Amino acid sequence: MIFEQLVKESPLAIYTCDASGRVTFFNAAAATLWGREPDLLKDYWCGSWKIFYPDGRPMELDSCPMALTLKNGKPFNGEEIVIQQPNGVLRSLLVYPSPVFDEKKILLGAYNTLVDITDKKSNDEKHEILSAIVESSDDAILSKGLDGIIKSWNAGAQKIFGYTEEEVLGKHITILIPPALISEEEVIISNIKAGKKIDHFHTVRLHKDGHEIEISLTVSPIKDAFGNITGASKVARDISELKKAERLAYQFAKRQTLLNSIGITISEKLDVKEILQKVTDATTEITGAAFGAFFYNTFDETGESFMLFTLSGAPREVFEKFGMPRNTAIFHSTFSGEGIVRLDDVTKDPRYGKNAPHYGMPAGHLAVVSYLAVPVISSSGDVIGGLFFGHPEAGIFKAEHEEILASVASQAAVALDNSKLFEEVMALSEKKDEFIALASHELKTPLTSLKGYLQMLQKEKGSKTSEFFVEKSLKQLDRLGSLVGDLLDVSKVEAGQLQFNFDFFDLHKTIEDILETFRYNTTSHIISFTGVEEQLMVYGDQQRIEQVIINLFNNAIKYSPHAQQVFVSLEVNKDQAIVIVKDNGIGLSKQQQKGIFKRFFRAEGVAHIAGLGLGLYISKEIIDRHQGSFIVKSEVGVGSEFGFTIPLKTNDIQTILTM
Amino acid sequence: MDKKKIYVVEDDNDISEMITILLTEEDLQVSTSANISDFRKLLDKELPDLILMDIMLPDGNGIEECKELKESNKLKSIPLILMSAHAQSKFVIEECPADGFIPKPFDIYDFMAQINHQLTKTS
């Protein structure tokens, strides 16, 4: 009875068949496993709905292990099959069919025990998948005990660190850690012991052959069935390439910035020294040189000679104590323009150390092992100079540096050519101003005696005609005098030598006086005045302001040949006096207005009107120096308004006084 | 009354001649020199009533010469007027103790006014 109950209620699925294979008994566990209840004495071999081999092929019912056991009289000890329940659920089973004989060895039937291994099986599969993943991963995946002894090692680890599994299993993890970083392991282990994970820690590890590898490390604790931490799993990703790419990208960006800055300097600056310094600084940085120098070629009577110009990375004294680089074998190919010289170790070059007196670098010379020299050749083909770079370590300079330097050198050559031209132009311009100053002085000398004689002649009583002619001549002489005066002023403005004599004066009185002279001498136009009718003290150079007003009057009359009136006004706005001279003349287009303050500017279509085009240029300078502003309003065919503002006496003239 | 004596120091012969005519017509006695060393020789002989001197001279600068003359007790009382086609009057007066300045070219009426002003000041 006990046995019968045991069999019926056992959690193990059990059933029996008679010798012909008909199911004679099954327990509740078997029915649960099958998902159905077979018909006793009707269903054969077993109660399964469908049976499969473990690889998934369908299994005939009469080929099942139970059928074979009955057929062959031999038991199976844990044959694996897969059954499918009517609801579609698959179960993996180990079956143990065993035949039962009587005393005469006649087959009575068989009993079968079914063990459900579905869960275990899926765990195994998972494990296999995980193993496959671990093995096929490019990342190094390894595990170690808390003592640091390596316990597992995948193919990725072999690829990254170079050791095979056999070589490292049982070894201490520190074989992978650079001596300087050994303390990292303690930190990692103490984190692991505390149950903490380390994520994407960027560090450096050693390859079997000794070179360093940049890796990103993730370390997780391994726990046993009881939750105790027994070790750590490590995933290391080789980020050397990534880091290299990052560095390259950074280097390129930096290089680009430097090249741009060279480009800007070269295109914007015309000062040789500034250009050379910029080029030297930037190229020294790009090449990674310890120091760089730009030797600028100057030729003396003996032929080739060089002079030190700009330096980067080393103080000037370091070079100066050795004097100029001489035409030694090592320098020759650069200064003769043969091409770029790049040496990983200059001291091993056959050209090195052949020249007296030093036979190599003099004592105290900056240590140079890596050497790079680039000739700078002008558009005319002359070698203008050379860029030289040095570094105390060997093999610093690379082929890529040659390319960059060659292009920088050619840019620098262009810039040097340009600045040379610029210097020539500046020198010519200076000469021209000197000439104008001299010429105007020389012109004034005959004017002086001419004017003296004419005025003396004017005093003599003569015929009406001769008196008229003398008067005309004197007027023309004054005109000539003011033209020469303008020329002299221009040369002074250019040289920054236009002098001013600031003082307080009455601007109203000044205008009145000029008006009087003009009214006396001008018959073509009526000059009318509006505005302030009383004393108006301003701070400035009275003679120069007179010069401006006279210039504006002359222009207004000159450029309104068909009008009869010129309007002058003097107004006060806050702390400024405003003088405006208005005409109904030919006017200026917007385009023309842009050019009026330039030297020698003449409005188009006014060739018939005399003038040098210096008046407004000088006037503008005068007003600027008075902290005033120039006013221009003009319309073609309608007329022009020219004027200026000048600070009143009440203004904070302290700023002007300190000018 | 003796004619007032004026020493003109001017290296341009034409100007020098013109000034001589002008001053002679005004009843003044004129002695000219084209450079400073000749002028000094004249000074050694006789002192004038007025000196009229160009600034840019072949052997010196009128401004410097003016400074020297004005430091001499014997000469400092003689009125000295500088002339130039280059400099501006006010700056010349600021730079040296000249009694007057005449820019070139000049108006003969202004010129004579300055000369007479200086001459009457001393007499």
From TrEMBL, chain A:
Keyword Lyase: no
InterPro entries membership: GAF, GAF-like_dom_sf, HATPase_C_sf, HATPase_dom, His_kinase_dom, HisK_dim/P_dom, HisK_dim/P_sf, PAS
Domain PAS residues, every copy: 1-39, 126-179
Chemical reaction(s) catalysed: ATP + protein L-histidine = ADP + protein N-phospho-L-histidine
Top EC class of this enzyme: transferase
One Pfam family matching this protein: HisKA
Gene3D superfamilies: 1.10.287.130, 3.30.450.40, Histidine kinase-like ATPase, C-terminal domain (3.30.565.10), PAS domain (3.30.450.20)
Keywords, alphabetical: Kinase, Phosphoprotein, Transferase
Keyword Repressor annotated: no
Domain Histidine kinase residues, every copy: 438-650
PAC domain span: 197-251
Record's protein name: histidine kinase
SMART domains: GAF, HATPase_c, HisKA, PAS
EC number assigned by the record: 2.7.13.3
Automatic annotation (TrEMBL), chain B:
Response regulatory domain residues: 5-119
Keywords: Phosphoprotein
Family annotation (InterPro entries): Bact_response_regulator, CheY-like_superfamily, Sig_transdc_resp-reg_receiver
Recorded superkingdom: Bacteria
Alphabetical list of Pfam families matching this protein: Response_reg
Residues bearing the modification 4-aspartylphosphate: D54
Transmembrane segments: none
Protein name: Response regulator
Organism: Pedobacter boryungensis
Classification of source organism: Bacteria, Pseudomonadati, Bacteroidota, Sphingobacteriia, Sphingobacteriales
